Amino acid sequence: MSYVKSALLEEKGFVILDRYDQGADPQEWLDLEYVEWKSSGDTRFAPLASAFGEIEVNGFWNHTPPRTDKDGVWIDSQVAKAPHLVQRAMEPGANVGRCRVIELQPNDYANTLYNLHQDDNNRLNPDGSGWIVRGFFNLTDDAESFLTLREDRFNPSSEIRIPLPAGAQIIVDTQRFWHAVWHKGPAPRYCLITSWESGPELDAYIEKHHGTNLHENPYLDPQVIADAQADVQRRLAERSASLASRGRPDDHPVDPEA
User: Fold this and answer.
1) Is the peptide bond before 163 cis (omega within 30 degrees of 0)?
2) Predicted confidence band at 253 (pLDDT cuts at 50, 70, 90)?
3) In terms of domains, do 127 and 243 share one?
4) Where is the composition biased (Basic and acidic residues) (predicted)?
C-alpha cells in the first residue's frame, strides 16, 4: 500500500525537533484525570483526545465502528485542565488521533528492552492517506532517561537512545520501531504523546522547528547491554514455557538467533 510520508521520517524513522522551553508552561499534567493502562512498564495515561471524547485510551479500531488512529475527539473536562498541552498537540495543524499524557514510573535497562513494542497506528488506514506517526514531548526533566528505539528488537546495533530533558521534542514512526523508555527516575516521568497524520502540515512543522535525524548515541557499556539482552531472553523463554503449559500461543517469542 502507498501512504503519504514525511521525507525525514521515511529516511530514518525519527526526527528530533528544537527543544521547547517547558519551564515557561504550567504543570498541567498534574491536574489531569488518569486511567490505569499498562504499556511498556508501570504506566498510567491521561487522555486528552480519544475515539469518542471519553476518558479511555483504547485503540480506535477496538471501538464500534472501528477506525484508524485519526480524528480524535477532544475530552472537554481534560482540555479545560490542560489548554497549553492541547495547543502544543494541535500546533502542527495535522490530523490528531489519540492524544494523551503518559506517566511512567522508574525502571531499568533490562526492563526497557523487555518492554520494547511496536504500535499499530495504521490499522485500517486507507491507501493513499497520510502515515500515522507519534510526537513525544517530554514534560518533566529526565535528562538521564532515554527514548529507546530499535528497528530489530533483538539487535543492539540497531538501538537509538535519545535523552529526555524537559522540552525534548521527538517524532517517531512507532510502527517501524520497537520502542520503550528507559526512565532512571527517581520521580515519575510525564510525556505528551500525540498521533499525527503525515502530510504537508506535519512537514512544515518539522521544518519550522529545525527537525533533524542526525543523532549520536550516549555511551553505554557493552557489558550492560549484553547482560540486559541475556535477562530479556531468559524472561521471554520463561514466559513462552508458561504459556505453552497452558496451551496458549506466544506472540512474543525469544530471539531465534539467540
Assistant:
1) no
2) low
3) no
4) 247-258
Nearest to 236 by CA among 154, 130, 170: 154
Contact 72, 97 (CB under 8 A): yes
Interval 74-99 mean pLDDT: 98
- Residues of the domain holding 112: 7-208
Contact, 55 vs 32, CB < 8 A? no
Supply 92's cell numbers.
Answer: 502542527
Backbone angles phi, psi at 176, to 5 degrees: -85, -40
Place of cell 520502542: 179
Same domain membership, residue 137 and residue 98: yes
Interval 3-25: pLDDT, tens: 999 999 999 999 999 999 999 99
CB 60 within 8 A of CB 97: yes
pLDDT tens string 202-234: 999 999 999 999 999 999 999 999 999 999 999
Amino acid identity, position 158? S
Q: Is residue 132 part of a domain?
A: yes
Please compute the mean of the pLDDT values over residues 98-112 and round it to a whole number.
Answer: 97
Mean of pLDDT over the chain: 94
| Joined grid coordinates for residue 76 | 472537554
Distance, in Å, from the CA atom of 222 to the CA atom of 16, rounded to the nearest integer, reads 25
C-alpha cell at 183: 526512565
